[in-house]
């Protein structure tokens, strides 16, 4: 895609790596699955919300690689609504067992006592954190950029838990700058990312979260639909859609120097569109249309 001042934008289609474990989820799970096999674990246990890309990815990856999977799901009101939720229905069809907990209990997910209670209930398991981010996940995300990407000046990436961008920052070249577009309100991830990465050529952009995690508006929906119509590339509304919107807006605001070459990382998340459209229909808002 070409823009004024000789600026070009390319999208790295990580969403096409795997039909069900796409984008950064594939990268994050790669070495965790190998480690689980090495430890001779039979069960993967992880955490997520109602429409979590991570939950869907772990469920399918577990089925594909021969693991049992357990999902600790935020929101005990979802217990009787699996059939109404496309993400949970998909995960259940892949064999995932669910444990629904209240939002208050879910906040304890990193507490040792909470994890010990889970082991007493389910037996031994390989723990994958919410969103999949740990050292092995970052190692996997360090493989996103290749030698072919050396020509780009800027690398754009959406941010949830921070694992993907940490891997990209660790592998970026000295002449490149990484721009991370936060899907959540606030800049609280800056210090966490800084403590993990070894390079300093990165910046967190916090102006395009559209109200916070999972929040959308008519402007963003219209942008995603228009972008698909013009480029035949689907964008998810939680992460990638906001990043691409932000980059194009910054181009028009002259944020980038002339003739900048920008590479945007498409981290997947398309499975979540069906659930988002259900919410939009309930609110009588336009839906995301990526069916061509």
UniProtKB/TrEMBL annotation:
Keywords: Pyridoxal phosphate. Residues 6-268 form the Tryptophan synthase beta chain-like PALP domain. Pfam families: PALP (PF00291). It comes from the Bacteria. Its cofactor is pyridoxal 5'-phosphate. The keyword Nucleotide-binding does not apply. Coiled coil: none annotated. Signal peptide: none annotated. Transmembrane segments: none annotated. InterPro entries: ACCD_DCysDesulf (IPR027278), TrpB-like_PALP (IPR001926), TrpB-like_PALP_sf (IPR036052). Belongs to the ACC deaminase/D-cysteine desulfhydrase family. This is 1-aminocyclopropane-1-carboxylate deaminase/D-cysteine desulfhydrase. It comes from Flavobacterium xylosi. The lineage of its organism: Bacteria, Pseudomonadati, Bacteroidota, Flavobacteriia, Flavobacteriales.
């Amino acid at each position: 895609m070409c823009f004024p001042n000789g600026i070009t934008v390319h999208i790295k289609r990580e969403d096409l790596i795997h039909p069900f474990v796409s984008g950064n989820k594939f990268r994050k799970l790669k070495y965790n699955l190998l480690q689980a096999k090495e430890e001779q674990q039979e069960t993967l246990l992880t955490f997520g919300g109602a429409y979590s890309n991570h939950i869907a990815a772990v469920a399918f990856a577990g089925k594909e690689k021969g693991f049992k999977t357990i999902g600790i799901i935020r929101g005990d009101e979802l217990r009787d609504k699996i059939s109404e939720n496309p993400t949970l229905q998909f995960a259940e069809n892949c064999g995932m067992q669910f444990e629904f907990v209240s939002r208050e209990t879910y906040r304890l997910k990193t507490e040792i006592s909470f994890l010990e209670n889970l082991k007493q209930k389910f037996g031994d398991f390989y723990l994958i954190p919410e969103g999949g981010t740990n050292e092995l996940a970052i190692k996997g995300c360090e493989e996103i950029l290749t030698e072919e990407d050396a020509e780009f000046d800027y690398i754009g990436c959406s941010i949830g838990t921070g694992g993907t961008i940490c891997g990209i920052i660790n592998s970026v070249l000295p002449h490149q700058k990484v721009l991370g577009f936060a899907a959540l309100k606030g800049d609280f991830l800056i210090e966490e990312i800084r403590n993990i990465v070894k390079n300093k050529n990165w910046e967190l952009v916090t102006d395009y979260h559209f109200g916070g995690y999972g929040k959308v508006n008519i402007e963003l929906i219209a942008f995603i639909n228009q972008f698909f119509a013009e480029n035949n590339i689907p964008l998810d509304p939680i992460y990638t859609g906001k990043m691409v919107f932000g980059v194009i807006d910054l181009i028009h605001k002259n944020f980038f120097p002339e003739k900048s070459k920008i590479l945007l990382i498409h981290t997947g998340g398309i499975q979540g569109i069906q659930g988002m459209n259900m919410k939009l229909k309930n609110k009588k808002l336009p839906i995301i249309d990526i069916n061509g």
